[in-house]
């Protein structure tokens, strides 16, 4: 047998990662601007590591090399500086900006249509706020996609994870609501995602799921799960973008396009209209694989099914055989796959609740010890009491008789004397003066807490200043609260 060594650089790349880095309005006021300086969700640190580093590290550990990073134009300088200051040796990152403001959001579908010319091959769509656990390598999702696209013509693979159980009274309701879990219907044998409950579905009928017989005839025994969350990690065929170009009215990928895409496989009219977009050509190897596919044979089984009304995990039971629609060509499934992850904490850090929970999660395995560098060690007073489940960033000063427990403190912070900090997250460049007490708080960068002030379960915007002796509980502290009056007066004079 003749063997040839093919140079690695001649092997075309298989996937392009499309990484989205938006404004993060649900993380306000941490992501509210600090004067003229934007505070980026992508660079918001979780245990002193910027959010965007988690998915980028995940990509590095996989076979993907090329990354299209899409961000608001106003965020590009800061993200570019971070990428070049923290080089990812195996990644080629193309940063592409788009014009958007925090008040006028642009949906994922709109972004994909706009940048479709820069996505020439199969792609992995993900958000910068996803933190995967070590037990979920990206290669496991990619391998599932590779196998299923060849075996039966799958068009996309999604990843869902078990929704974390929030601690009771972990954060005040004033900080925002915890995103609810989503009800999904799926086929266990083939791991096929069949139905996603959308906000429109809930508005029409919040008590029952309305499922089509065309779906149940092809998948007679389906599972219903109501405790899963979407990771916003989607591995897609390039042809999915061709269909998206035809659906100009779709803006949200998860709430509009993906639920619609799940229906193409079993809705005859949709399949007839869009099959030539999703399957422009079938190669010989795929055709042969389809003939021997066990997944395809399972999908051809047909009988009616009844789905329970309750939105909890259940399976349907077939009652009477019903012939499948003979007009549907099952040579290619055109289905959406499902990778369900139940072990190991995964999260999308797109709200304050999850931000706090992920910091707590990593603190549980933290083992703080005094810095070994003499200059850094000199910044921590010998009489300071710092628990082992605490993380303190570089160049942070802690004065005498200060107590710090279960807390993350960023870089270049100054903590005064006799300060008590419990269960908090302090971002970079914060100042806490003598005798202050903080309990369960999140301080945006450059926050200053005056002497003997007391904060309980508060969150501050970057640059906020708490007056000495002030006592505040369960509040979002934003600069506009005490500057709005002056700003509006000056604007009126200019007009």
From TrEMBL:
Q: Could you tell me the superkingdom of the organism this chain comes from?
A: Eukaryota
List, in alphabetical order, the GO biological process terms annotated in this UniProt record. cytoplasmic translational initiation
GO CC annotation = cytosol; eukaryotic translation initiation factor 2B complex
Q: Does the keyword Chaperone apply?
A: no
Which GO terms of the molecular function aspect are on file?
acyltransferase activity; guanyl-nucleotide exchange factor activity; translation initiation factor activity
Indicate, by first and last residue, each region the UniProt record lists as having compositional bias (Polar residues): 310-319
Keyword set includes Acyltransferase: yes
Under CDD domains, the record lists: LbH_eIF2B_gamma_C (cd04652)
> In what residue span(s) does the Ig-like domain sit?
134-236
| One matching Pfam family | NTP_transferase
Q: List, alphabetically, the InterPro entries matched.
A: eIF2B_gamma (IPR051960), Ig-like_dom (IPR007110), LbH_EIF2B3/5 (IPR056764), NTP_transferase_dom (IPR005835), Nucleotide-diphossugar_trans (IPR029044)
Region (Disordered) residue ranges read 299-328
Cellular compartments annotated: Cytoplasm, Cytosol
Q: Which keywords appear in this protein's UniProt record, sorted alphabetically?
A: Acyltransferase, Cytoplasm, Initiation factor, Protein biosynthesis, Transferase
Where would one find coiled-coil regions in this protein?
Answer: none
Q: Enumerate the PROSITE patterns for this protein.
A: IG_LIKE (PS50835)
Tell me the function of this protein: Acts as a component of the translation initiation factor 2B (eIF2B) complex, which catalyzes the exchange of GDP for GTP on the eukaryotic initiation factor 2 (eIF2) complex gamma subunit. Its guanine nucleotide exchange factor activity is repressed when bound to eIF2 complex phosphorylated on the alpha subunit, thereby limiting the amount of methionyl-initiator methionine tRNA available to the ribosome and consequently global translation is repressed.
Question: Quaternary structure per UniProt?
Answer: Component of the translation initiation factor 2B (eIF2B) complex which is a heterodecamer of two sets of five different subunits: alpha, beta, gamma, delta and epsilon. Subunits alpha, beta and delta comprise a regulatory subcomplex and subunits epsilon and gamma comprise a catalytic subcomplex. Within the complex, the hexameric regulatory complex resides at the center, with the two heterodimeric catalytic subcomplexes bound on opposite sides.
Checking PANTHER family in the record gives: TRANSLATION INITIATION FACTOR EIF-2B SUBUNIT GAMMA
Q: Of which family is this protein a member?
A: Belongs to the eIF-2B gamma/epsilon subunits family.
Protein name as it appears in the record: Translation initiation factor eIF2B subunit gamma
Top-level taxonomy: Eukaryota, Fungi, Dikarya, Basidiomycota, Agaricomycotina
